Each structure stands twice: as C-alpha cells, then as structure tokens.
Amino acid sequence: MGFNKKTVEDIEVTGRRVLVRCDFNVPMKDGAITDESRLTGALPTIKYLMGKGGKVILCSHMGKAKGPDPKLTLAPVAARLGVLLGKDVIFAADPEVVGPNARAAVEAMKEGDVILLENTRFRPEEGKNEDGFSRDLASIADIFVNDAFGSAHRAHCSTSGVTKYVSTSVCGYLIQKELKFLGEALENPSRPFCAILGGAKVIDKIAVIDNLLNKVDTLIIGGGMAFTFLKARGYDIGSSLLDEGRIDYAHEMLEKADRLGVRLWLPLDHRVSAEYADVEGHVTGSANVPEGYMGLDIGPLSEEVFTEAIKEAKTIIWNGPMGVAEFKNFESGTRAIARAMAESGAVTIIGGGDSAAAVNSLGFGHRMTHVSTGGGASLEFLEGKELPGIAALNDK
Ligand code: AMP
Known about the structure:
This protein has 396 residues and is of the alpha/beta class. The protein folds into two domains: 8-174, 3-Layer(aba) Sandwich (Rossmann fold); 181-383, 3-Layer(aba) Sandwich (Rossmann fold), CATH 3.40.50. It is 34% helix and 16% strand. It has helices spanning 37-51, 75-85, 100-107, 131-139, 173-187, 202-212, 226-232, 247-260, 300-312, 332-342, 354-361, 375-382, 388-391, and strands at 17-21, 28-29, 32-33, 55-59, 89-92, 114-117, 143-146, 168-171, 193-197, 218-221, 263-265, 270-273, 282-283, 294-298, 315-319, 347-350, 370-371. A six-stranded parallel beta sheet has the order 5-6-4-1-7-8, sandwiched between helices. The chain has a six-stranded parallel beta sheet with strand order 11-10-9-15-16-17, sandwiched between helices. It is elongated. It starts with 16 loop residues before the first strand and ends in a 5-residue tail after the last helix. Adenosine monophosphate binds at residues 199-201, 204, 223-224, 241, 295-296, 320-321, 323-324, 326, 354.
C-alpha cells in the first residue's frame, strides 16, 4: 500500500459536491455528546472545503446499527457541529441515508454549505460493502474525501466501495497526518527506532510483533502479554496472565529478534499483588513472580531501563499499557513510559484506542508528535496490512 495519497489540497473543489467520510462515532449519554474531540478533529478538513466553495456532504457511522435505529441517529452531531463551525449544518434526516430527503437537501446546496447524512449503518449494505449503497453515495457526489482513519481498516461502502463510482478520491487532513507519521515511521524512520508494546493479550499483537521485528532496532514488551514471553524464557510468572497456547510463538519471536539483531527488552522486575484489585503492590527484586502473586505493572528497575532505551531512540511507537493502568496503584509503569517519550525529543507516535486514552488521561497527549485516531486501524497499519479505506484513494 502506497502512503503518498492525494489530499484535499491537490484537487479543485469549488462548486463541486464533496462527500466526506468522517469519524463522528462519538460517545453519547442521554442524547448528549460526552467527548467531542472527534468533531473538533474533523474541523480542519471541513473548514478547508467550505472555504474553497465546495458543497460539503458529511457522512459517518455511529455505533453498531444494523439498519435504521432512532437511538443511533447523527442528528445531535449535526447540531453540535453547526455550533463548532459557526454555520448551520443541515441534517439530512433520511432512513435510507441517501433517499429522497437527502437528495433534495443536496440539490438545494450552495457553495460553502454543509450537510450531514444519517448514520451510514442505517443501510444494511454498508458493512457488507454491497454496491447498492456505494452507488447511492456516489450519485450525490463528484469527489470523495476519506478522513475517518478509525474506519479505514474496514471495507465498507462509505470507506471504500464508494470510490469505485466517483472519479476522484483523496484523503483529508486527519488521514494525511496518520499516513505521514505512521507511514514514515514504518518506511523510513529516523534511527534508532524503538517500539513499545503492552496490553493484555498476545493474540492481538502477534502480527504487529512479527512485522515490527523486521523494522525496529529495539522492541520493549510490557503489560500482561510480557508474561507469556517471560515464561518462554523460563521465568516463574506466578498467577500472572499467560497465553499457554502461544508460548511457542513467543519462543519464535525471541529467536527472530536474536537473529535480526533487534534488542528485545522484557520486564526485569514487577509490581505484583495477590489479587486482581487496586491495592498497594509489592515490588519483586527480579523478573520472577512468586507463587500466589500476579504481575500487574512493571517494576522500578524496568521503568529505569526502558526509559534509557527510549532516550536513545529517534523514533518511538507505543501501543498498549505497561500494566493495569486503570488502577492507581499500577499505573506507574505506563506513566513512566509516557513521560520518557514526552521528554525524549524523538518522533513519538501513540497507537489509537486504549493507548491514546491512557496517554491523554495522564496528561502527556499534547507532548507527543502524533496520537493516532484509530485503534484497530493503527494496529493493522503496524501489522503491515493494506487498509481498504486508504488503498482506494488516488495516489499523488
Ligand atoms: P489491550 O487491549 O490488549 O491493549 O490491553 C489493555 C488492557 O491490558 C488494559 O485494560 C490493562 O488493564 C490490561 N493489562 C495490562 N497489563 C496487565 C497485567 N499485567 N495483567 C493484567 N492485565 C493487564
């Protein structure tokens, strides 16, 4: 997959109908939006297109709708977006998403107008990438802009199918930024290149580890998944998380790291507890976990050694917490990594989802070079997979 995609700045939009796939899947409570960062994130692309006199038609999915579902309407998003833009956003209420109402609204648009279509998942074809809805979307647009990185790993009508039926498909500023930082890190990183992986499950990171070992100089593995690797190295892990079926895989990866000359760090000590609870932990003096205890965070020596490895790096990618960071007593390792990255002076990239949430809630988000907006999408990117919503865009 090429990373050099055309952007909104490479095309002529004045007077043209521009369909923009956004990620407006915002958290809601009692009909109110509880975190509007996805809306503010989308503003630069929308404002640019408005300013150039495009007719801006926004679309997005919301929740897990499998057909029309009034609880998952995008109407509140249109209202809030209008306030943020300082201009009315016309909501094209239409259970068919692109039905008579939406068509009439598009017909009436003037240059610089903005409308929002209804939740794309109200159309059952959306998730199956079936042509009917792709053609309907394309029928109201001259140009397609994808700015929903969080959905780019899915081949849906509104992320990739529609591109078959419009002549011009480009990325917006959000995807452009993801491609710049994630793409550059994987293709041409400043070295040393260090990846840090954590989180609970080995299975989720198998393909990431395998791919990154071909690219990085240093790989740090922490979090619950580290115990399967420690077990493979012969350490005692007490009752810590273990993926019994993947010890062989862990062996294989440790060997691959050796073969490729990648410096691979596992925790050298831990903060452990007898129960999975937010209680004060004990620090082990070694990588072994005593029987009856489980490791819930990396220990102070690991923090120190990992911090040194981070200091040496020029590019750092991080995905997955070092411990149970939701527990105050076990957030120390995750905080130490976030701080080391923030102070490193390197290009620092945070994978989306949990890691982005953790870094933001610890207050380090704004000190990173790039915090990805896509959880699953950024992982698939790091796996080296082709993302359908990006592959389908026009190359420069
Ligand atoms: P993931 O979704 O795989 O990135 O995992 C994130 C989850 O891993 C978080 O909810 C953490 O609580 C959990 N986690 C991290 N380290 C540990 C650990 N040592 N033991 C149990 N859970 C952990």
